[in-house]
Amino acid sequence: MAEMGPVEMYVVEFDGYRFKGEIWPELERLKENDVIRLVDLLLLRKDRSGALAVLTATDLGMKEMLEFGAKIGSLMAPGLEGDEAYASSVMAGIQKVSTGHIFSEAEAQKLAEDIPLGTAVAVALIEHRWAIPLRAAIGRADGEILSEEWLSPEHLMELGRIAGADEQPGLDGGNGHKANGQNGN
After folding, report:
1. What does 27-94 look like in DSSP terms, one character per residue?
2. Sequence spans of domains, the chain
3. For 21, which DSSP code?
4. What is d(CA 184, CA 180) in angstroms, rounded to the nearest whole number?
5. Strand, coil or helix: 100
């Protein structure tokens, strides 16, 4: 399988009747520059009467989607023992994407139950292609990625709050313990 970049999931809610046409052109621009690839998109729109419209899209061909499913399955396998368990996990991943999409009709219907009338929801899996050469360079330098995490603005604000509290004098109360509960030594 060709190398894949990290995959991020976006869940976006819209007032169902106020699409401005700005998102798709930006996705296309990013795809044309090989910055991202749309692994899967599920767009659900529920009108004010409850009628549901469903749109799906992907940049992956069927072969790539099946390879992606196999990769997903193989990532589930390390906690299992034996070659049969590994093969079973890989096959489960392939079966999951056998329709050419990751999101199934049943998942779309389940999500639709929670969408308010007059609302649209998009769930997108986006592969970050820009990261592939960076990962390769890390590998060539004998580096090992120990963790990959996306931090939301809320996470960054919390990290900033913690760092700010650690730097303020007098927060240890004179007992050698910082405000966050860690020993000040």
Report:
1. HHHHHHTTSEEEEEEEEEEE-TT--EEEEEE-S--HHHHHHHHHHHHHHHGGGS-SHHHHHHHHHHHH
2. 7-60+100-144, 151-185
3. S
4. 10
5. coil
Sequential DSSP letters for 112-180: HHTSPTTEEEEEEEEEETTHHHHHHHHHHTT----------HHHHHHHHHHHHHHHSTTTTTTTTB-TT
Task: Determine the pLDDT at residue 18.
Answer: 67
Q: pTM for this one?
A: 0.74
> What is the mean pLDDT of each successive set of 10 residues along the chain, which is 185 residues long?
84 78 90 95 92 92 90 72 76 85 88 91 93 93 90 83 69 45 44
pLDDT at 61: 92
